[in-house]
Design a protein that fits this description.
Structural class: mainly alpha
Strand content: under 5%
Number of helices: 8
Number of strands: 2
Helix content: over 70%
Largest sheet: 2 strands, antiparallel
Distance between the termini: 5 Å
Shape: globular
Radius of gyration: 18 Å
């Protein structure tokens, strides 16, 4: 049986002992900052405009992807003892780790279609559908992980809802990006998405956690 101590001085004291929220939140926020920078280069400068822009974009985008994927491990598994933000929920742990795997696949596929093999994109009409499927799966996994985190009550305060709200924002903006043909609307949605990642990461990094006792 898992019990939780009420919020208070004892809970706040657990920040040092449970350093995984700092690790997970910092990685999510860092990933959001880097993805914001990569998006700015892609939208306002152009990846092909210069060698410097290309190197910067690839560095920011790839590092951002690694940061987001890496964040799922401490978020789901804590300090390696399985006691992360989802508590004892196996579904929550699988959803968070699954999100990391699908996110990695999604971002890699985007780079492949947009930059590495752009000439092959018109010859692969199923590619767009595949990306859409990955996006939907990614969002649903994040929703499941967010619900598990909210129910577990391991993270205190607004951080408890950060992943669920992030998932809702991602779903809304994903639909906007998919259906909109207005470049300004799509660009705004991309930046809103990356900024929401930064906010969620900061909330998680600053969160206190509830003590867990079997």
């Amino acid at each position: 049986m898992v019990t939780y101590t009420p919020a208070g001085r004892d809970t706040l004291a657990l920040r040092g002992r449970y350093g995984w929220p700092v690790a997970a939140g910092s990685l999510i926020a860092t990933g959001g900052v880097l993805l914001t920078a990569a998006t700015a280069i892609e939208v306002w400068i152009g990846v092909a405009s210069s060698a410097t822009a290309a190197v910067a974009f690839w560095s920011f985008f790839v590092t951002s992807t690694i940061a987001h994927v890496a964040a799922m491990f401490p978020l789901a598994l804590g300090v390696g003892d399985g006691r992360g933000a989802a508590g004892s929920s196996v579904i929550g742990k699988v959803a968070l780790l699954g999100f990391g795997a699908v996110f990695l696949t999604n971002q890699s596929t985007y780079l492949l279609r947009a930059y590495l093999l752009p000439e092959a994109a018109p010859l692969a009409p199923g590619g767009a559908a595949f990306l859409l499927t990955l996006g939907v799966a990614q969002s649903l996994l994040l929703v499941a992980g967010g619900f598990a985190i909210a129910r577990a009550r391991v993270l205190r305060g607004s951080a408890r809802w950060a992943v669920l709200v992030l998932a809702a924002v991602a779903l809304l903006l994903g639909v906007t990006i998919t259906v909109s043909t207005d470049l300004d609307v799509v660009t705004t949605a991309y930046f809103a998405s990356t900024i929401s990642q930064i906010v969620a990461g900061i909330l998680i990094a600053r969160a206190a956690v509830s003590a867990q006792a079997k």
